TrEMBL record:
Gene3D superfamilies tied to this protein: Metal-dependent hydrolases (3.20.20.140)
Pfam annotation, one family: Peptidase_M19
Gene Ontology BP terms: proteolysis
Descriptive protein name: Dipeptidase
InterPro entries for this protein: Metal_Hydrolase (IPR032466), Pept_M19 (IPR008257)
PROSITE patterns the UniProt entry points to: RENAL_DIPEPTIDASE_2
Organism phylogeny: Bacteria, Bacillati, Bacillota, Bacilli, Bacillales
GO molecular function: metallodipeptidase activity
Length: 317
């Protein structure tokens, strides 16, 4: 069964290796250091992969934009340029035109730090094909507070402007890293909310997971929640996490009315712990096999890709 994965950090890994004098450059086709390399995507039957532009907070503010542009360049040269079967999705309708054997590649932004307070830089990102924007990583920035900001503030005026611009450009606003207050303020404004890689806080009390009232609000707004494979977000005992533990989160989301709103957001290449049997993109079909023990084929197809296709932003009236 084919897969849409709403979050990975392969661009960050590629940049880290590219900039390091100690690390060897990574071949996206088959490097074992990339959880989402092309061979693994093919084996796992991933037909659309999202690639986050993510800059670690230790990069100085005057360098962040340069780092973001470097990751976009690596997306074009290392992922698209050297692998003709990889096709950029610049409009959501492009997914419908993928041919057999082709894999769609979607650019996203994890943290508005990349453009600071420069809306022209944000418009450049839209032009580059960025189709989902998370206002924060874990820390605060000029748009909003993230889950790791102790004050727990909400959106700034700039943050609200960005959400409105996302609506105008048919771009998702990603809530996965937002503080609770930021989340609720996004819910007031966003036409296209998504949690690209988050789980259920009731099952695993981690700040990156969502409370029940947040989950219900997402479903009320017909937003998507894509479960994440990072063990600390799945189970308190992070050293012994198996696929059935992840399915508990899917089951809980279904119990809150989200069977048509669930997807996958692995966080591969951004995590260093793994669910047993789900260590990289090539193992996706093991998850599908396990899901089919509990859900109908139609429901599993929804989790795998159809729910996303049904809820992607549309330009049609």
């Amino acid at each position: 069964m084919k897969i849409i994965d709403a979050h990975c950090d392969a661009l960050y890994k590629l940049q880290l290796a590219n900039r390091s004098k100690k690390l060897q450059q990574l071949d996206y086709n088959h490097s074992p250091k990339l959880d989402t390399n092309l061979e693994r995507l093919k084996t796992g039957k991933v037909f659309v992969q999202f690639y986050a532009i993510f800059i670690y907070p230790d990069v100085s503010s005057d360098e962040i934009w340069k780092y973001a542009l470097e990751q976009i360049e690596l997306f074009h040269t290392e992922i698209l340029g050297k692998n003709p079967e990889m096709k950029q999705i610049k409009n959501w309708e492009d997914i419908d035109h993928l041919q057999t054997g082709e894999i769609g590649a979607v650019l996203t932004l994890e943290g508005a730090d990349a453009f600071g307070n420069d809306v022209n830089k944000l418009r450049r990102l839209y032009q580059e094909g960025v189709l989902s924007i998370g206002l924060t990583w874990n820390h605060a920035n000029l748009c909003a507070d993230g889950v790791g900001e102790p004050r727990g503030g909400g959106l700034t005026m700039l943050g609200k402007e960005v959400v409105i611009l996302n609506n105008e450009h048919h771009v998702f606003t990603d809530v996965s890293h937002l503080s609770v207050k930021s989340f609720w303020e996004v819910m007031e404004l966003a036409d296209y909310p998504i949690a690209s890689h988050s789980n259920v806080r009731e099952l695993c009390d981690h700040p990156r997971n969502l409370y029940d009232d947040q989950i219900k609000k997402m479903f009320e707004k017909d937003g998507l929640i894509h479960v994440v494979f990072n063990p600390p977000f799945v189970r308190a005992d992070r050293d012994d996490v198996k696929i059935p533990h992840l399915i508990e989160h899917i089951d809980y989301l279904c119990s809150l009315g989200g069977v048509k709103n669930i997807g996958f957001g692995s966080d591969f290449d951004g995590i260093d712990q793994f669910i047993h049997g789900l260590e990289d993109a090539s193992k996706y079909q093991q998850l599908i096999t396990e899901l089919l023990k509990y859900y109908s084929e139609e429901e599993v197809r929804g989790f795998s890709y159809q729910n996303f296709l049904d809820h992607r932003p549309t330009r049609l009236p």
